[in-house]
Every structure is written in C-alpha cells, then in structure tokens.
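Chain X:
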Amino acid sequence: MFVFRFSWAVLALLLVSVWAEELTEVEDQSEELSVSQLLERANRNRNPEIDEPFLIGGDIAVKSEAEKNADPCTSSGCLWRKWTDGKVYVPYYITNQFSSRERSIIERGLESFSSVSCIRFRPYQNGDSEFLSIESRDGCYSFVGRQGGAQTVSLARSGCLYHGTVQHELLHALGFNHEQTRSDRDNHIRVVLQNVQSGMEHNFRKIATLNQGTSYDYGSVMQYHRTAFSKNGQPTMVPIPNSNVAFGQAKEMSRNDKARLNTLYKC
C-alpha cells in the first residue's frame, strides 16, 4: 500500500513538473513577441459579451459600432485632471478576477508611469466619480482618454498580462492613439491595403492626432508591427523611404512615448 501511494505521489509530481515546463515554455515564447504582436494574438478570436464595446484599431474601445468611423478623443477634453500639486491622479480599481501574480504585473505597469511623468495611478477611493476599472474581459482594450464614470480597461488573463501590454492600454486611457494612425503617417509609413484583411481597413485610417511636436517613432509601444491585420502574411505597412527600418518591435514605452506623455499633460 505504501509503495502504491508513493508511486501516485511521484506521478503527480512528474505531471506538475511537465505542466510547469510547458507553461514556462509558452511564457518564454510570448516574451519574445512585441507588444503589438501580443495584442493582435490576444484579440484575434474575440467572442465578446453583449455588454462589451466595439473595437477599432485592434484594441481601442468605442461605445457603439456607429462610432467606428468617428475620431476617438484627441483633444484636451479627454485628459485627466491635473491637481494643484502638479500631479495627475488617475484612480483605478482592479477586480478580484486576477491572481496575486497577475495583479502584481498590472500594478508594476501602473507604477511605471510615476518614475517618468507626473501621472500617478492610485487605488479607487469612495467618492471617485471617474476611474479605470481594470477587468479580465474578452481581449485587451481600452477607451482613448478620460470618458467619465467607470471606464473599462480589459486585460484578459489569457494573453494580456505583460508589462508592455499594460503600458499600451494605459497610454490609450491617458489619451494616446496608435502611431500608425498619426496625421503625418504617410510621410513615414506606406500602408499596403491589398494585404489587409477584409473589414480591417479602418484600422489604418489616419486621425488628427496630437503629435506633441515629436518625430514619428518606429520604436513606440503604440506602433503596430509590419504584418498587423495581414490576410496573407505579407506586410501591411512598409516604412519609407527606407523599407528596411525595423518597427513595431517595442516591448515597453519608448523615450518618445514618455516625452509625449509629459508634453500632453504639461508635466
């Protein structure tokens, strides 16, 4: 009987070890992907609930499908309020869907803004009328800028919990759009629409972005990768004039991302 029990215990330990190795391998492979690749993978086969928002640009939430062709907020009206001490306090609430490890990844992303800007994400307090509700919904997404009330930032437990993806969605919530939709995009990126999946063309529509006087940043965490939304594995975006320039490979905020954030909020 002792031998029988011992054998089952050994087998259980072996199974746990194999499972852990497989999980580690998956995590290691994911760490090699850029933020834009992680986002596209996480949102590729969404099956959202009826109360979830329509997405444009892959991960930008809008309140209705009718707003698909409307410009997300890019004016000062969508900025979070600055207080008299010069700081911008953005309340957040993290739902209890996340494990302690997952919560630590989210909190690290939130805290990363305080060392490079005047943005201070702080936990929700009674009386807060506007705050980010960080939830595990279907995929990774955020509204652009302050919306009023409780606004969802979705960081699905399966696919979205990486430092760079957290930063990416928080930058959306602070008012930033994707780099490839910049108003001066055509001077730096040529969009190859014939390679874009049918129905996804709107993801490459230019908008009147606030470029903060900064140059186009191929290394921005908000820049999508070369084959984003491709129907055939061929490039949907080609840098110009040098087609060999690497882009869409960021795994966290770039120097330009931080500079624009500080300029937008007058830090």
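Chain Y:
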Amino acid sequence: MNPNNLTLAIIGLGYVGLPLAVEFGKKRNVIGFDINQRRINELQTGHDATLEVEDELLAQATGLSFTSNADDLKAANLYIVTVPTPITEHKAPDLTPLIKASETIGRTLQKGDIVIYESTVYPGATEEECVPVLENVSGLTFNEDFFVGYSPERINPGDKEHRVTNIKKVTSGSTPEVADLVDSLYNEIITAGTHKASSIKVAEAAKVIENTQRDLNIALINELAVIFNKLGIDTEAVLEAAGTKWNFLPFRPGLVGGHCIGVDPYYLTHKAQAIGYHPEIILAGRRLNDSMGSYVVAQLVKGMLKKRIHIEGARVLVMGLAFKENCPDLRNTRVIDIVNELREYNTSVDVYDPWVSPEEALHEYGIQPIESPQQGNYDAVVIAVGHQQFKAMGMETIRTLGKPEANLVYDLKYLFPAEQTDLRL
C-alpha cells in the first residue's frame, strides 16, 4: 500500500481517538467515526466536551470529518480502533466494544486494507480475538487480503504537558512491511518518535505492563500509608524524606481508578490464568488498591467518633467524583467506593465536582452532584480529588462548609499541610 494514498478512519472518538484524529486530520483526510450521535453532533459544532482537545486545535484539523454512519467508512483503507476495553463486574476483560468495532470494520474491509488497534488488551488478543472477526465478517484472509497493526495508546486524560504528539509511540505490524508502514505513519505526527516492536504480542504486552507496574507501585505506597497510620506517622512526611534519595520513585497513596491503571492489570491476569498461571503479586496489588475506599471511610468514621460526631444521619461532603484531578473523566472512578461505603453507615452524602457532567454522573453512578456546597452544612468533608478549584478555595473556606460545633476534614490528596487537616491518607 502506498502511504501517500491512505485515507484514515478513527473508530471511537473519546479521550484516545479524538486527539489522534485531530493530529492526523492536520495532514491527511480522516474519517472520525463514533456510534454516539450526540458525540458526533457536539464535535461537528467544533467543541470537545472531554476537554482533551481545545476548540482552536479542533479547527486546525481541516482534513477531519465526523460521522456515525458506518457506510461512510467505505472511503477509508486504513482503520485505527480506539474504543474502550473495560472490565466486567467480575473483573474479567470485556472485549464487547472491540469486537463490535471489528464487526463494523469487517463489513467495509477491502483487499489491501490495514486495521490498527490502539485499545489496551492482553497479549494475543489482536490476532486471537479481533482478526477472526475481521475474517468472518469480510470474507477476506488475514495477511493475504488485509493486514493488522497494534500501537497502544498512551493518553493521559487531563494532562496538557504529555500529549499524543510528544509521547513516544510503540508500533507493530502483522508483517515486516506492514510494521514499517505503521511506524512511518505514526512518525508523521509523533514528534517524540516511535519504537517499532518486534511483534504485535510484544507491543500488546508492553502496554499492559506499563499500567500494571504503576498499579503495583501505588499499592505498595497505599500499604505503607496504612502501616504508618497505625504507627502515628505522617505518610507524606515519610515520602518527602525518602524522596531526597535520587532513585526513590515519587508515588503517592490514593484511590486507583480510571480507564487504565485500575483496569489493565486484570487483562494481564486473565491471560495468565488462561494459560495456567495464577499471578500472585499483581492480584494482591489489585485487591489492596480496590480496598482503599473502604479504608478511607473506616478512618473517617473513627475520626468522627473521636470528635463525638454521631455517624448515622451525619451529613458528609465528598469533594470530587472524577477519577483524577482537573479532568471530567468518570470512568471507573473509585470515589464511588467512598460514597457507597458512607451510605452503608446511613449517612447523607453530597458530591461536589465542578468538572464532571451531572448527566453523566447520574447515568453512570446514580449520583446527582450538587451545584455548590453550603456553609455550615456538613459534619465531615472528604477532599477526594485534587482539582485546582479545591486547592484555590483554601482550607479556611473549606472549614466553613462544616458545622460550627464540630466537623472533620479528610484530605486524601495532600492539597493542604498536615496541620490544617484532621486526617490524611
């Protein structure tokens, strides 16, 4: 295939797909496809509600068009799949979006076409799960009539410093020639350069261990925080002291959610178990990180009891619902664990987050965030997400949200000095 004759189709226009489509749309003809008509309508007005792409950057992608009509994909000869790969309630990989995207592509796939997957999967998933779907639906033969590549996404939602163009990109292809083409294609937009992996499985494995490693590092710090709490030692003070050594890794304790770190390890452990190996360390880290919401609430309740605050019927304000700071992304947010656990104690919980969509919060979690908290209203305040607005409020203002007679502030994100708060993780 001649690289100069490529028309791209990006399948899935979320946090990963849209920035990619915009960058390619500055240089090539790109079809941006998403099954969500509301998302398409919004993008056609020139605005991205996820806030990953600014309006002015969206306007610069003059080669980019948006559609929810699968028939429009027939104009493409190279497809890039950027759909989510979540997990089920039983912590198993949910490949449904990936399979459905492959079916959609299969219906328009032509001889010589290439399909590149960016969605996070376990090693082998592209060739074992996606390729058979493409073959069955299209009637074409893999590596004869069509080819595939894998180039894992490395998007960090809300991060305006590390963006798609300046993050090094891993690439791969199903044949040496396709690997070269995929690599050269991404090099058109990736200023940080690329790393061509030796196989698709290597690229898949590299992606899934990036977040597994981070998950385990955070699990270690979370466990240390629990230990230091029992010892009456301030965790942040310990980490600051240890951080003076040049090779100490600067991780911090906290809730581990989002579409990557809290999800990807389960893809790897699923594959490991499928081949007869039971991963010990990875699953131990996952269990510990998944338990942090319960631990936070247990500490909060103890702190309230020490201040003689009655738990049942208490009013608690949870500041933040997004899975990370300065970002509207609600996917797999573990703040919901705190909310649900507090409700088990029959407390009244208000959630305040100026970043998130109230409609999405209601749809995903049944939570109706409040527009603004009222002063003197709460027995306890939990700063669950480190949004810039919360830091700008200052502890003095946050304190006024609590009841004058007795209140407690739990700062999960170390936004304020230890002496200004009642509890820290």
